[in-house]
Amino acid sequence: MAQKTTHGLLPLLPPPTTSQSPTAAPAASRSSRAFSKIKFGLLAGVLAISTFWAYSCSVGGCNHGEAPVFGGDEWEDDYAGVNEGISGRLGYTLVKDIPAESIPGRGKRGVKKGEGDDKRLIIVGDIHGMFDEFQSLLDKVSYDSESDYLVLAGDIISKGPDSLAVLDFARKIGAHCVRGNHEDRILLHYHDIQRRKRKHHLALSVERKLAKSLSKKQAEWLDACPLVVRAEKVPGLGQYYIVHAGLVHGIGLRRQDPVAIMTMRTLNHHLVPSPKQNGMHWAKYWNKMERRETHGHTTVVYGHYAAEGLDIRRYTKGLDSGCIRGRRLSAYILKANKGGRVEEDIVSVKCREYLD
Amino acid sequence: MQLRKALLGLVALASVVSSAAVIPRDGGGGKLPRPVSPKKPRREPEDTKYFRENTDLTGHYDERFFSEIVDYDARLDTLKHMVRAWLLTTAKEGIETWIAHGTLLGWWWNGQILPWDWDLDVQMSADTLTMIGNEYNMTRHKYVSEDGLVEREYLLDVNPWIWQRVRGDGMNVIDARWVDVRNGLYIDITGIAETQPDSMPDILNCKNYHRYHVNDIWPLRDTTFEGVPAKIPYSFDEILITEYRAKALVVTEYEGHRWNTKSKTWDLANDVPAGAEAEQLKNHVREPERYYSVESGGFFYNVFRLLHWW
Ligand SMILES: [Mn+2]
């Protein structure tokens, strides 16, 4: 367990043995009980160094001199990010913009003091086919398809009891969406089934059954979900990105790994994202870097990371509060208040226990 | 009291050791990702070794068709047409296959072959492999390039020992080949299968101990490779990181080539070391599958190890 955290934070840790330099040994050789303890500590330190060295030799070889040539070095540098074009090669729609008139506080006449405006941006995290909960959440926020711009942050379907009902309802009320890892898998299965010449060798999995049950219309609607929904110039708050899993700070959308946008949880120290949990939470890195910017902030709203639960930070808003496992279904709301400022709010409902 | 101090010291030490143990596996050492394990020169042919390879060139040619060592340009030309022919032929015949290992890494960078690669890797399910063994073994396939200028012929040769999945002697790691009959260069075709459906369901193995979860392979993704339709595994990025480490996705100088960020190609670069020189510089070849499988053992194991050494 301890390694889980150290692994991701390595570059931030001081070299492990600097405080126990063996050259300090003679200074500690005067005899007293206190010093004998120090002596013990030093012995331990030397041992630690030699253990480290021996271990690193056995695992990684003793060649500590020649460093490889990288596009960048560690955290701070923009990593090579050379996978540019992968979105295109995989046929993904990368980004769609929310029209200006649907962004809170950006109505034609702007927001006047004492009025606010009625435009709300509502983002709902991983619904996973939990139809009843989705409905009661919309009731609770008094959803109005005329004035509200609703974005479902991916993983709308799969796992839960009523995927198709959620899908049809979302289409009916004019919801928008981003592509989650589950939509991605189901759609890949769907297109495979449509095209297949030979019978699939694997037994019909749960996913494949769901994919088979999709109508053409439903599949088309899901296929049109981009990886990123963007809201530009939210008054006082800057830019908003809505994605399913996350983004790597400092890398343009076109150079992000499109699959990682749907699956990432952590970053390693080359800023390579991973769906695993042993590394630095990408949102932590995002906030760290975003706090350094003086203007033009970008906030990311996302789902996917149920293990972290509702995770609201200054520049990242994690919405997967584990509805499918009997926790809550959450909505993040942006709304222009009477003072003319855009404010955030979070509303959630309790979920029945579907998976354990 | 003394004992408590000693224990405290141990605790501190162990945590230092366990954190230190992580460093060399990813951060240290100046090692570069190297697509090695599936096709290193093997020991002298033994009884069960079906394919005969030209051994002095580390087995990049099929011996039956070897005439001479091809140069850089001829090799790249051979490989590019060969993989296009494979992908087009399998698509036409409805044979499900996807690109793997170094070939997949090449796709990740720019959808093309890594120019320093000597052979190409594709995979399929063991069932599909059995099927092509029955229906297509030793078939020859003609190919004409899109512009009509290049005509080639390939042999699809399936190793009769494909049923010998559990590797005993380190031999037969290749299941089938797609061979250019002009010069013997070939594509490795490997089947993956559940080897222990009872104890490890959904875990797939190829003969070379590369291990995949069924959900990491399927559903396959549709893309293009060298300009023709191709398939890649669902979790291609995870697979690449497991097999080659994250560094393989960020290093921009490798094996005598440098990544050209403008043209998105790997260009020959005289100042970038290659071959034996690069080997010496980087000291040793890494073994991809060990990267994640070697556990540093955790806290208690490190305490134990320290005590043991004392
Ligand atoms: Mn998800």
UniProtKB/TrEMBL annotation, chain A:
<feature type="compositionally biased region" description="Low complexity">
    <location>
        <begin position="18"/>
        <end position="28"/>
    </location>
</feature>
<dbReference type="InterPro" id="IPR050126">
    <property type="entry name" value="Ap4A_hydrolase"/>
</dbReference>
<protein>
    <submittedName>
        <fullName>(Perigord truffle) hypothetical protein</fullName>
    </submittedName>
</protein>
<feature type="domain" description="Calcineurin-like phosphoesterase">
    <location>
        <begin position="120"/>
        <end position="308"/>
    </location>
</feature>
<dbReference type="Pfam" id="PF00149">
    <property type="entry name" value="Metallophos"/>
</dbReference>
<feature type="region of interest" description="Disordered">
    <location>
        <begin position="1"/>
        <end position="28"/>
    </location>
</feature>
<dbReference type="GO" id="GO:0006798">
    <property type="term" value="P:polyphosphate catabolic process"/>
</dbReference>
<dbReference type="GO" id="GO:0000298">
    <property type="term" value="F:endopolyphosphatase activity"/>
</dbReference>
<dbReference type="GO" id="GO:0016791">
    <property type="term" value="F:phosphatase activity"/>
</dbReference>
<dbReference type="InterPro" id="IPR004843">
    <property type="entry name" value="Calcineurin-like_PHP"/>
</dbReference>
<dbReference type="InterPro" id="IPR029052">
    <property type="entry name" value="Metallo-depent_PP-like"/>
</dbReference>
<dbReference type="GO" id="GO:0005737">
    <property type="term" value="C:cytoplasm"/>
</dbReference>
From TrEMBL, chain B:
<keyword id="KW-0732">Signal</keyword>
<feature type="signal peptide">
    <location>
        <begin position="1"/>
        <end position="21"/>
    </location>
</feature>
<feature type="domain" description="LicD/FKTN/FKRP nucleotidyltransferase">
    <location>
        <begin position="91"/>
        <end position="198"/>
    </location>
</feature>
<keyword id="KW-0812">Transmembrane</keyword>
<protein>
    <submittedName>
        <fullName>(Perigord truffle) hypothetical protein</fullName>
    </submittedName>
</protein>
<dbReference type="GO" id="GO:0009100">
    <property type="term" value="P:glycoprotein metabolic process"/>
</dbReference>
<feature type="region of interest" description="Disordered">
    <location>
        <begin position="25"/>
        <end position="47"/>
    </location>
</feature>
<keyword id="KW-1133">Transmembrane helix</keyword>
<dbReference type="InterPro" id="IPR007074">
    <property type="entry name" value="LicD/FKTN/FKRP_NTP_transf"/>
</dbReference>
<feature type="domain" description="LicD/FKTN/FKRP nucleotidyltransferase">
    <location>
        <begin position="204"/>
        <end position="245"/>
    </location>
</feature>
<dbReference type="InterPro" id="IPR009644">
    <property type="entry name" value="FKTN/MNN4/W02B3.4-1"/>
</dbReference>
<dbReference type="Pfam" id="PF04991">
    <property type="entry name" value="LicD"/>
</dbReference>
<dbReference type="GO" id="GO:0016020">
    <property type="term" value="C:membrane"/>
</dbReference>
<keyword id="KW-0472">Membrane</keyword>
